[in-house]
């Protein structure tokens, strides 16, 4: 199967399995797992933050950020198609007790003036604004890179109003690699960050949240409350560390494959690429009226290509470290054949 459904489907390499097998471990709730500690130090260093915390998933990392930054009854500002808003089961409301205030972005980037206008004034009727969330790359916008200048402008607004900024950077390394910038250049314009080890970086489990030492100290307690305090977690942290050491730069290959896929798909009659492909996500619209998304996805599957449906006439492809140039060529000829 050529699995282009997501960058989460990657399986751990032999080297990662070996790292897990050989990992030095201890009880991480006591802070005694050397492999977890190494991963957290390395992640903080790469991001240019004081400290970081290994969490079970991206969703858990984002929720810990909301719980740590906000109080119940507050409001958070985020983009209208943000993962935190669309795909986290309303956890910000269920757990942190905050309500979302959404702003429609342009390819995932919110207008800083709109962000400022959405910050609540002091009034007995109003909730307080507890946090501003950014997402980079922006998943629903097709892996769009939110420009550093946009992050800087929003961070300036946030600082003026003393509101913390959290970055849902599930794919932040994709943004950095694709724009040829250091990840710190993005990270400097946010107080806290969540990024996924288990997406394009190819680790089997986990995410990192990073920020000030004081933030991470409080976040650690929220992680424990949520049941995310793991014991000999070095078993899963060791492949995560390997992912940071070896898999960041190779994201460029995923991006190249995504561009090749987009180019090929664009040449197939009856399909149209609808996003500007900057990283590892390609979205297409089926313009041929005689075939539905479900039927095309089914036909592709029968011939060995997996992709994800996005409503009645859209399909999404995500390149990842299991995909080769040959897979892209094969996928294109299969799609052409079954359409
Ligand atoms: C995948 C993703 C998450 C959630 O990560 P999980 O590990 O699946 O919980 C959060 N934000 C964005 C933008 C994502 O793409």
From TrEMBL:
Pfam families in the record: Beta_elim_lyase (PF01212)
* Keywords associated with the record: Lyase, Pyridoxal phosphate
Q: Gene Ontology cellular component?
A: cytosol
Q: What is its EC number?
A: 4.1.2.48
The record's CDD domains line, in alphabetical order, gives: TA_like
Q: Report a single Gene Ontology molecular function.
A: L-allo-threonine aldolase activity
Location of the Aromatic amino acid beta-eliminating lyase/threonine aldolase domain: 3-287
Keyword Magnesium set for record: no
Please give a single GO biological process term from the UniProt record.
glycine biosynthetic process
- Name the cofactor(s) required for activity, per the record: pyridoxal 5'-phosphate
Indicate where the modification N6-(pyridoxal phosphate)lysine is found in the sequence.
199
For this chain, the family text in UniProt reads:
Belongs to the threonine aldolase family.
UniProt xrefs under NCBIfam families: GntG_guanitoxin, PRK10534.1
Protein name (Swiss-Prot/TrEMBL)? Low-specificity L-threonine aldolase
**Species, as recorded:** Radiobacillus deserti
Gene that specifies this protein: ltaE
């Amino acid at each position: 199967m050529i699995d282009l459904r997501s960058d989460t489907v990657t399986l751990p390499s032999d080297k990662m399995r070996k790292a897990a097998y050989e990992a030095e471990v201890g009880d991480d709730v006591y802070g005694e797992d050397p492999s977890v500690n190494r991963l957290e130090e390395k992640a903080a260093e790469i991001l240019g933050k004081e400290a970081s915390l290994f969490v079970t998933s991206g969703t858990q990392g984002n929720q810990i950020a909301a719980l740590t930054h906000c109080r119940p009854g507050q409001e958070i500002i985020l983009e209208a198609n943000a993962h935190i808003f669309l795909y986290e089961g309303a956890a910000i409301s269920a757990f942190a007790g905050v309500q979302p205030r959404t702003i429609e972005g342009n390819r995932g980037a919110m207008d800083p003036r709109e962000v400022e206008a959405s910050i609540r004034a002091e009034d007995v009727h109003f909730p307080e604004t507890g946090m501003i969330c950014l997402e980079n790359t922006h998943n629903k916008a097709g892996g769009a890179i939110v420009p550093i200048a946009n992050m800087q402008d929003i961070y300036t607004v946030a600082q003026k109003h003393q509101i913390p900024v959290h970055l849902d950077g599930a794919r932040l390394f994709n943004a950095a690699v694709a724009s040829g910038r250091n990840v710190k250049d993005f990270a400097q314009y946010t107080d806290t960050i969540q990024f996924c080890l288990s997406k394009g970086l190819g680790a089997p489990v986990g995410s990192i949240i990073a920020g000030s030492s004081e933030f991470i100290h409080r976040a650690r307690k929220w992680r424990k409350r949520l049941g995310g305090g793991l014991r000999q977690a070095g078993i899963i942290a060791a492949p995560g560390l390997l992912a940071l050491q070896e898999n960041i730069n190779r994201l460029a290959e995923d991006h190249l494959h995504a561009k090749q896929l987009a180019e090929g798909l664009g040449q197939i009659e009856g399909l149209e690429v609808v996003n500007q492909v900057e990283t590892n996500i390609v979205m297409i619209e089926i313009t041929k009226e005689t075939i539905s998304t479900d039927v095309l996805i089914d036909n592709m599957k029968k011939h060995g290509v997996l992709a994800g449906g996005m409503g009645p006439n859209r399909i999404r492809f995500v390149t990842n470290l299991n995909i080769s140039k040959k897979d892209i060529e094969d996928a294109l000829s299969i799609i052409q054949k079954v359409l």
